[in-house]
Amino acid sequence: MFGFKLKAEKVKKIEKVKYNGYLYNLTTESGNLFANGILVKNSGGLGTPAYERVIAGKIHKANGGVLFIDEMGNLEPAAQQELLTSLQEKRYPITGQSERSSGAMVISEYVPADFVLVAAGNLATIEHMHPALRSRVRGYGYEVYMNEVMDDTLENQKKLVQFVAQEVMKDKKIPHFSKDAVEEIIREARKMAAVAGKLTVRLRELGGLVRAAGDLAFEEGANVTERVHVVNAKKFARPLEQQIADKYIEEKKKYEVIITSGERVGRVNGLAVLGAGAALSGIVLPIEAEITPGGEKAEFIATGKLGEIAKEAIKNVSAIILKTFKEDIKEKHDIFVQFLQTYDVEGDSASIAVATAIMSALKKVPIKQEVAMTGSLSIRGEVLAIGGVTAKVEAAIDAGIKQVIIPKSNEKDLVLSKAQEEKIKIIPVVRIEEVWEHALVWKGKQKKILERLKKNSGN
Which one is the CATH code of 247-455: 3.90.1480.10, 3.40.630.30, 3.30.230.10, 3.30.1020.10? Predict the structure, then answer.
């Protein structure tokens, strides 16, 4: 190995140095390397200071400003601990752990790292935050829960119109949107909000739809993006959850797990959702019930890997069934409820479906398979509101269901196109007796059961 150390002003005279061997490590006074006549900065020459042998991190570059971290919970615990230390000390050494650093394990003296930290994530992020770092935020008044929706007012609708125009200008390729196309985008914003009188503010998802629709119009050579382009864009620009839901329905119908015609005793089409937020997608959830000889007392047994909330919902349903049909449930009977080929079921929105399946199995009254239903249930038999009603009804339409029973309180939350409204009949209900009246096939003497149920309603 051979090396020279020259002053910066003498670097230009390197070619005058006479040496018969191979010159491959010649350093300047600042410690940079000349390798075969090429200057290599931060190369770790003999005189390179430690802080020049490493690459400054984000916390150092944010000194005197703001550091933004999205999905904070994805940071390794060790990294979160180091972040907390830098926040407390307002300084932190630079380590040579960058792949671009010549000194892989070099650590510098303390470097200023005084910044304001802004972190983002969802509610699950909080569970994965380092407890010490989390404690620095909790109670200080700096926690902000961002709304996912805004009021469906003319002013906010105009803001969405402006947003569409901005996305078009930013893309620089797709054509501008017609009034009908923008109205379809606004309708999609209502659907994503999933609450009556609200618009979503999840603009990332809306922006993706704008660009997808614009691309379709551009490929067709259209001068303006029309409503049909937005509608078609939704068909192929589907989130992963929707693709999974589509595959689920296709497979279940293929093997007759989902039945959409005829009558069956103890079998009902419930509705559920996959995903969350704008990626919420509905699925049809077949449920069956059977009454069998059991132990010393009546027991309700549910299968299908249910979540805690779903298990609690089954208990509420059992209370209603025992109260309503106590004279029909003998002590030595078990009531089984099965969620067919469905796993990780959570929530209580299948409560009215479970109650209907048990009612059918208990009284041998068949259920219309062209009907699907969703709704929570109080222990007094009241049908309560649920989430994702639009996604669930759309899943029913895609599966070929003709009627859907929903809570009356969710009626205003439903956002369907005219074409979808023509394919489905929506039945809003307030009590479980109304569900049974519409979903079951009452014939002959069984009609008396319905009359008794309606008479005792709410007692």
Answer: 3.30.230.10
- Among residues 191, 252, 363, 392, which one is catalytic? 392
CATH topology of domain 149-237: Helicase, Ruva Protein; domain 3 (1.10.8)
Known catalytic residue at 445: no
Residue among 349, 351, 360, 409 flagged as catalytic: 349
Instruction: Kindly state the average pLDDT of the residues 358-368.
Output: 89
Global pTM value: 0.63
Tell me the mean pLDDT in the region 184-194: 89
Whether 149-237 shares its CATH topology with 247-455 is answered: no
Q: Say whether 297 is catalytic.
A: no
Band (pLDDT 50/70/90 cuts) for residue 7 is very low
Q: What is the 3-state secondary structure (H, E, C) of the chain?
A: CCCCEECHHHHHHHHHCCCCCCCCCEEECCCCEEECCEEECCCCCCCCCHHHCCCCCHHHHCCCCEEEECCHHHCCHHHHHHHHHHHHHCEEEEECCCCCCCCCCCEEEEEECCCEEEECCCHHHHHHCCHHHHHCCCCCCCCCCCCCEEECCHHHHHHHHHHHHHHHHHHCCCCCECHHHHHHHHHHHHHHHCCCCEEECCHHHHHHHHHHHHHHHHHHCCCCECHHHHHHHHHHCCCHHHHHHHHHHHHHHHCCCCCCCCEEECEEEEEEEECCHHHCEEEEEEEEEEEEECCCCCEEEEECCECHHHHHHHHHHHHHHHHHCCCCCCCCEEEEEEECCCCCECCCCCHHHHHHHHHHHHHCCEEECCEEECCEECCCCEEECCCCHHHHHHHHHHHCCCEEEEEHHHHHHCCCCHHHHCCCEEEEECEHHHHHHHHECCCCCHHHHHHHHHHCCCC
> Where residue 115 falls among pLDDT bands split at 50, 70, 90?
very high
Question: Domain locations in the chain?
Answer: 1-48, 149-237, 247-455
